[in-house]
Design goal:
The complex is a heterodimer of chains A (about 80) and B (about 675).
Chain A lengths: L2 E3 L8 E7 L3 H9 L7 E6 L5 E5 L2 E5 L1 H5 L1 E4 L3
Antiparallel strand pairs in A: 1-6, 2-3, 2-6, 3-4, 4-5
Chain B lengths: L3 E6 L5 H9 L16 E7 L2 E7 L11 H11 L5 E7 L3 H13 L4 E6 L1 H6 L3 E2 L1 H8 L3 E3 L8 H12 L14 H13 L9 H9 L3 H10 L2 H15 L5 H20 E2 L8 H9 L5 H23 L1 H21 L4 H19 L2 H17 L1 H15 L7 H9 L1 H7 L6 H10 L9 H11 L4 H25 L10 E4 L7 H20 L1 H14 L12 H9 L11 H9 L5 H14 L5 H8 L2 H13 L4 H11 L2 H28 L4
Parallel strand pairs in B: 1-3, 1-4, 4-5, 5-7
Antiparallel strand pairs in B: 2-3, 6-8
Classes of the chains: A alpha+beta (about 80), B alpha/beta (about 675).
Bound molecules: guanosine-5'-triphosphate and magnesium ion (MG).
């Protein structure tokens, strides 16, 4: 399974959330905001500053520290 | 007692818009998550029943992370609401329904307001409300809160639920075999009297590790039951740290089953307007300069429209009223003291504050445009790197921007920050963000000394305020509030065309506060100071021998190193602690009294130089916050200590800033 941290995905790439390895409450919050296992995400912006992710047509900005801990499965 | 309806939903889904539409209230609405941070009650009539409706802060789930979320969670769990109107953003239905599942599990009587269907339509998202309603087992009413559509039907649905008993047992969401077994186990030991929630829901919350529910349960069990409960709880919840996450997954599975046939969205790939705007506004290099440019444009426009175009309007009015009032008093042969009170106190003091209203109206309308467009969240986004450099995160910038309007809501907006350190610092640095009440001070001095550079001076003061706030943020985060920099996590709502109603409402919010203060605090302060300026009997009014003059002279030497050691300035600053506009009102009054009919502008030109004017402006920008802000700091931090701290440390910083400006200016030969 090709799992990459969100920060190493390029703009426009799709994938599914495989695992989040952030702290307890941060992970929980992300899950509840819809980044649960298997959620379909698309990278809208990933250059400098927080990563912007598209999630079911909405945008969420995640600090790089957090984005690094989100592992994405890029195999379709 | 009237029945209570609670408005519950994700941040930014339109709860307050709906609340305003139903009740006719005018609470703050904005296109960013976290606008509402406290509960607000209102009434509305349906048929011949009067219902109470409660607007709440937005939440993603019932497990609260921040103060504002706790406000909502506590009210929902309090058992007070008879019916919950669950506002669901139709364009983001899956995540919104996640909260819905929790409401259903806890046995609440729910009506779903499927809001923003207009946007869902234009984004070609097709929704089958009938199917949704059947699958969820609750009424689903499509609404467009901003256009007041669907309100009747919604109220009708809510009212018809009121008489019914809650449908407790219907929701048996399955979380998979192993978790379901644990839930069943736990369910047996929490089945106690006095707990109003379905035991199954309680069990699930406990497995999620919800402390709030745990306390509730422990509080309602007898000591023997408690022992039994703890044993079972430890057993089933042991070594499974992923349990809470699996439960979230379980709920999303349920949501998916609900939406799979009822919601259809077009496959992505179309570049929306929001995408295109974001390419520019959140650009890695231009994002920040664009933010500065936007703010600068706001000030330029404010001056162009508010000062040059409308500026004379109210000033003329005040002058007219002043003359009419004096004429009237003359005709009824009112005593001299009354005439002088009217001319100096009312017109010279209170009136001078009112003259700046057109500019304030324009400024707040422009700010309202930005706020309702969706730019607010982008400003936080582009500021994240900068905030990180001082030990904070981008979201901390949002309460600071709110502080531009007034520091009271600014301090309260810090509730949305989950991290205690972020929250405390955001509260303590908020007063450096220049609030609207200081504008009359800036404008009076600008008119006297920098008439050509108005926008630039204002902009520089605002920027200086931000810089000092950041600097103090750095100091506080490396001394009193150490800790890791917290994560940035913020939803970026789609850009929306600002509605006239919202812009006007938010402007009025600020301007009405301004007017109310002019009629109360400023009025009282000015009247009080007027009396003090004429006592003891026989002294020359507004002379250094009057009580006011003596008090002022006592404080004045403190400000000598900053170049404005005159007693009038000292009294002005002191009265500004009551409310910032009082600085100008006081100066207006004391100078109006010295010389018959003298304009504040020329009086200031006589008493200050451009350099001391600058140092005075820096002082007013930074020094002790007004009492309303201090009281809010006390309330929000839960301790008077921080309010006192804020009062003194800001004073010190203001003083240092003013002295620096004056001394450096003098060395450079500007004095
Ligand atoms: N197109 C459209 N926009 C809406 C609708 N309802 C609300 N809005 C807009 O959505 C934005 C958010 O509205 P609010 O009422 O502040 O949302 P809220 O749920 O109270 O937000 P928080 O207090 O932050 O939780 C505003 O810009 C509203 O004008 C709707 O039905 N259609
Ligand atoms: Mg709201």
């Amino acid at each position: 399974m090709a799992c990459l941290p969100l920060t190493s995905l390029e703009t426009g790439m799709h994938g599914r959330v495989a695992r989040i390895a952030a702290g307890h409450s941060a992970t929980r919050r992300l899950y509840e905001m819809g980044f649960n296992t298997g959620a379909d995400v698309v990278v809208v912006k990933n250059d400098r500053g927080p990563v912007i992710v598209g999630l079911r047509g909405h945008k969420v900005a995640l600090g790089r520290g957090l984005a690094e801990k989100m592992l994405i499965n890029t195999e379709q | 007692m009237s029945k209570i309806i609670a408005l519950v939903g994700n941040p930014n889904c339109g709860k307050t818009t709906l609340f305003n539409a139903l009740t006719g209230a005018n609470h703050h609405v904005g296109n960013w998550p976290g606008v509402t941070v406290e509960r607000k009650e209102g009434q509305f009539r349906h048929g011949n029943e009067v219902l109470t409706i409660v607007d709440l802060p937005g939440i993603y789930s019932l497990g609260a992370f921040s103060e504002d979320e706790m406000v909502a969670r506590d009210f929902i769990l309090s058992g007070e609401p008879d019916v919950v109107i669950n506002v669901v953003d139709a364009t983001n239905i899956e995540r919104n329904l996640y909260l819905t599942t929790q409401l259903l599990e806890m046995g609440a009587k729910v009506v779903v307001a499927l809001n923003m269907v207009d946007e869902a339509n234009s984004r070609k998202i097709s929704l089958n409300t009938g199917a949704l309603s059947r699958r969820l087992g609750v009424p689903v009413v499509p609404t467009v809160a901003s256009k007041r559509k669907g309100l009747e039907e919604l109220a009708e649905a809510a009212v018809s639920l009121m008489g019914l008993a809650p449908k407790r047992s219907r929701y048996h969401l399955s979380y998979g075999e192993s978790i379901d077994a644990k839930v069943a186990e736990l369910e047996k030991v929490v089945h106690v009297e006095g707990l109003v929630y379905p035991p199954r829901w309680v069990a699930v919350k406990l497995l999620e590790g919800d402390e709030h529910v745990l306390r509730m349960v422990e509080g309602s069990l007898s000591s023997q039951e408690l022992e039994n409960f703890r044993r079972v709880y430890e057993e089933v919840a042991a070594h499974s740290s992923d349990l809470p996450l699996e439960i979230v997954d379980g709920r999303y599975r349920f949501v998916h089953a609900v939406t799979s046939s009822a919601v259809r969205r077009p496959s992505e790939g179309v570049l929306t307007l929001t995408d295109r705007l974001d390419r520019v506004l959140t650009h890695r290099y231009w994002g920040l300069p664009l933010f500065a440019l936007i703010m600068f444009a706001v000030f330029q426009l404010t001056f162009a429209l508010g000062q040059d175009l409308l500026g004379g309007l109210v000033a003329g009015g005040v002058e007219f009223v002043g003359e009419a009032l004096d004429g009237l008093l003359l005709r009824v042969s009112a005593p001299d003291w009354l005439r002088s009170y009217a001319a100096e106190g009312l017109i010279g003091g209170v009136g001078v504050v009112l003259e700046f209203i057109p500019l304030i109206v324009i400024l707040y309308m422009l700010m309202g445009l930005l706020e309702d467009s969706g730019y607010m969240a982008r400003a936080a986004y582009v500021m994240d790197n900068t905030m990180r450099a001082v030990g904070l995160q981008g979201k901390t910038f949002i309460p600071l921007i709110v502080g531009f309007g007034c520091n009271v809501p600014g301090v309260m907006a810090a509730r949305t920050l989950e991290n205690k350190k972020d929250r405390m610092i955001a509260i303590l640095i908020n007063p450096f963000m220049s609030c609207g009440a200081k504008i009359p001070i800036y404008l009076a001095f600008i008119a006297a000394f920098f008439p050509e550079q108005g926008a630039l001076v204002m902009f520089s003061l605002y920027v200086l305020g931000i810089l000092v706030a950041l600097l103090m943020g750095k100091v506080l985060s490396s001394t009193l509030f150490k800790g890791d920099v917290s994560h940035f996590l913020l939803e970026l709502p789609p850009y929306r065309t600002p509605t006239l109603r919202n812009v006007l409402r938010n402007m009025w919010d600020n301007v009405s506060g301004f007017l109310a203060r002019a009629g109360t605090v400023i009025f009282v302060v000015v009247s009080l100071l007027w009396v003090l300026s004429a006592l003891p009997a026989g002294v020359e009014p507004y002379g250094p021998e009057s009580i006011l003059g003596r008090i002022g002279s006592l404080i004045a030497p403190i400000f000598a190193p900053a170049g404005f050691g005159n007693w009038q300035a000292a009294v002005g600053l002191f009265s500004g602690i009551a409310a910032k506009e009082a600085v100008v009102a006081t100066l207006g009054m004391v100078y109006a009294g010295v010389e018959e009919g003298i304009e504040l502008v020329s009086a200031l030109q006589g008493a200050f130089t451009p350099l001391t004017a600058l140092s005075f402006l820096v002082m007013t920008l930074l020094y002790t916050p007004c009492v309303a802000t201090l009281a809010t700091i006390r309330k929000e931090t839960g301790s008077a200590k921080w309010a006192v701290f804020s009062a003194f440390y800001s004073f010190a910083i203001g003083w240092v800033g003013a002295v620096l400006v004056f001394q450096v200016g003098r060395i450079l030969g500007l004095g």
